[in-house]
Amino acid sequence: MNSEFHRHTALAARTNMEAHTVRLTRRILRTLSSLLFGVLLLSVVMVLVIAHRQNIDSIQQDANLMRQAWQQQQQQMLVDARDYANWGEGWKNLHLTVNKVWAWDEENFGPGLYKEYHYDGVFVVDGNGKTRYAVINGELSDASIESLLGAQSNVLLSAARSLHDAVAGNALVESNPAIVVAAPITPGKGQDLPTMPGPASVMVFVNIFTPQKLQTLGTSLNVIEPRIASDLNDALFEPRLVEPVLQGEPLVLRWQPKNPGFGVMWLMMPLLLFTALAVALVTRRVLRHALHNAVISDRRFEMLAISQRELANSEERFRDLAEAASDWIWEVDAQGRLCYLSSRFAAVTGHEVKSWIGRPLDQLLSHPSHSLVSWLMRQGEEVKHVPLRCQFMSANGERRIGQLMAKAIRRNGLRSGFRGTVSDITHEVDAEARIQFLSRHDMLTGLANRMQLQEYLTAYLECVSADDPLFVISFDLDQFKPINDTWGHAVGDDVLNEISTRLKSLLAPNELAARLGGDAFILLLRESTRAGVEYRCRALQRMVHQPIISGSHQISLTASMGIVSAPQDAAQPEALLRLADIALAQARSAGRDQWVWYSTDMANHLQSKRDMVQAIEGALHNHAFTLHYQPRYQLQSGQLAGAEALIRWQIADDQWITPDRFIPLAEENGLIAAISDWVLMRACADARDWGEQRYVSVNISPVEFRNNDLVQRVAHALEVSGLPATRLELEITENVTFENPDRALEIMQGLRALGVRLTVDDFGTGYAALGYLKTFPFNGLKIDRSWMKEFPESQQAQSVVAGIVGLARAFALTITAEGIETEAQLKALKALSCEEGQGYVLGRPMSLAAFNARLQEEETVN
Questions:
Q1: Residues 321, 313: contact at Cβ < 8 Å?
Q2: In this structure, what are the phi and psi dihedrals at residue 843, rounded to the nearest 5 degrees?
Q3: Strand pairing of 559-566 and 470-477?
Q4: What are the E-state strand segments in 163-239?
Q5: What is the rounded distance in angstroms from the CA atom of residue 440 to the CA atom of residue 707?
Q6: How far apart are CA 120 and CA 181, in angstroms?
Q7: Model-level pTM greater than 0.70?
Q8: Which part of the chain is the PAS domain (predicted)?
Q9: Chain centroid to CA 491
């Protein structure tokens, strides 16, 4: 009975103990659950606060970006305005007088300001407030500045003149925000420039931020849909940027806030709610299954085993990453001795890992200015996360460049060492150095390029004087292009490299040689006298004259040079280079293989040529050219065979400009094709009614054979005019085949395929050989008028003319003599069986009406 009592007592005690344990467990779990839910509630509040703070920070950041961008645009416009306003050329052409040819036509102050700088309005306002020059939206305009800015312009102009410097302000232009900059025009650094009494003219730049420009600005700043405030109520809301304007209410820009905090809320709130639900479910489950603590303990032990396995897997992944990475990992103790190196170290440096363990880091890595270990120790609590460039030696003795990253190691709150990585950046550093070199040097020759030349000139011209002048030589090779065309660009590159090497050997240490492209070079010489410069030029000539060997080719060259001196001729880099090019062009025109000093007459001559080119363009546009026709007769029968079309340009009643003055300029400036098209079209149309057997002859410039469209242009003229191709003769000079004979032959064959007649013009004055007549598909040749001067009195001239007639007959070519001025010449040519002729004795060049009258006379006689 006592045993039964004790058993029941023990059972009751254990039951009470279990009940107490259950109550205690439930109480603890309830307390923990309350704490957890409190923490979750606090987390929700913190997320809301963080989201709100992120939204405020985002708005402030966008406002700062917009303000900085607006200010930077103002500063850039101020810099541009000062550059143009303090320009001597601008003083002469925009203040003293308004030269629209200089400003607009030559694009010194014209559409480029709209296309390149995106300035919607450019104005020049004189001292009386009158707008003297305006460019609006890239177009020349007669509008005044008040028409764009209204009364705001007066405030800006007054501020610019009172401060004597560029000023910037904001304005509203057609309900769009705009930045307006005004700067008084000054002579800048120009010396001896004339002045004009009264207030200075003011240059004004207007940059209107249309909705499209605001969108572009917003895209570049990552600001969403910037716009101007629609009304006063809209201007009160954030985000916004408030900028003062010249007159009136401030300018307010609005945009759509990013609200990144909402993203945080959408991300975190579901997670917190899910966590709260999970905690509730777990708590409920624990409360219901508190008696299964043993099972939970087993699960915890199982989770611990899983964690240990994951830790082992993590360590294995770290080892694999350390061995596979391109960088090698290092670790040092508190004294800076190496205690770990990844196996990648051996692959990169060639050293064995074990041979470096325990040695100081400074023995492996070095820095030009300090010890790496000392540098690490000086970093305080945390090493700066900035890459440090260092050097190390590979096992084969090669010096390499590395980039070191480091982080402090802490154990029990104390720093016990450092670990980090080293990247081998030798190739990147070499590439960077190469890029730096190429940015200032010519890639082919290694000489200075245009950037380095500009830097040298800018720096030296600041202190140049008459006692210490600088001589600029524009230098190029004569007839360099045929080398590329004949033997290929590889040979041309060899020539340029050899010339560059020779140039460098002739320069003093403080002198410079630059290549601007092709065979164009610039030499900067430091000589005290002109005689010294000419001595150097003779040395340059001798250097160029020395033959150049490229493969199996031996090449002999000459060079032309144009010389200009600073500060005598100019003191600005652009002006010096331009004047040197003018002198170089004069040297080429004078026969090449020589040097020419710049003089002011050259610039005047160049301006005259430019004026003539403009006049030619105007004549084409205004149809000022006319055609005269010189009759050509069949000498044996006396019948009129046709006529040669000769272009004429009359600029006054008794004043003509001869073709030998304007045709070469048209060839140089790309106008010859337009002139030739007009002559072809006019001549074919005029000759259409001359009769079925008579033809018209048109001269073709050799320049036109450089393009491949000559056949199509001739075909178009024939099609439009309705003239049969057999009645059109094209006169071509002998030298047309010298530059590119293959292309010339292809074009001639295309013309012959149309049915057009081809005649060699001025035969006997060039260097054509018999193979020339045999290779190219000519129908006839013309004896040059130079052989007619002494014909038939001179035995030599008579022999030459007879030889040419016989040569033409041998090649089955129609022979034409030009320049027949006497009856004796006409009689002698008939005796030689010359087929056709033209000259003053047969008929002078005449107008179309006069030629048509002669045609009627011929038909009446026949």
A1: no
A2: 160, 130
A3: antiparallel
A4: 167-173, 176-184, 202-208, 224-228
A5: 36
A6: 12
A7: no
A8: 314-369
A9: 28
Question: Identity (one letter) of the amino acid at 209?
Answer: F
Measured CA to CA, the distance from residue 677 to residue 716 in angstroms comes to 9
Residue range 13-42, pLDDT digits in tens = 555 555 565 566 667 767 777 787 787 788
Backbone angles phi, psi at 480, to 5 degrees: -80, -35
Helix axes 600-622 and 573-589, enclosed angle (nearest 10): 80
Phi then psi for residue 87, to 5 deg, are -105, 125
Residues in the chain: 862
pLDDT in tens, 552-601: 888 888 999 999 998 888 888 888 888 888 888 888 877 788 999 988 77
Tokens of 802: 């007879």
Write the burial class of residue 124 (CB in 10 Å: 0-12 exposed, 13-18 middle, 19+ buried): buried
Q: Looking up tokens 């890992």, which residue turns up? A: 353
| pLDDT tens by residue, 815-827 | 999 999 999 999 9
Query: From its phi and psi, is residue 165 left (phi > 0), alpha (psi between -120 and 50) or beta?
Result: beta
Closest CA to 632 of 676, 723, 693, 677: 693
Q: Which residues pair with 634 in a beta bridge?
A: 836
What is the Cα–Cα distance from 226 to 261, expressed in whole angstroms?
A: 20
Token look-up 């104005």 returns: 123
Among 565, 457, 576, 435, which residue's Cα sits nearest to residue 512?
Answer: 457
Amino acid at site 353: V
Q: How far apart are CA 270 and CA 274, in angstroms?
A: 6
Residue 1 pLDDT exceeds 50: no
Beta partners for residue 136, in sequence order: 121, 139
Q: Which residues of 713-732 are buried (b: 16+ CB within 10 A; e: fewer)?
A: bbbebbeebebebebbbbbb
Amino acid at residue number 66: M
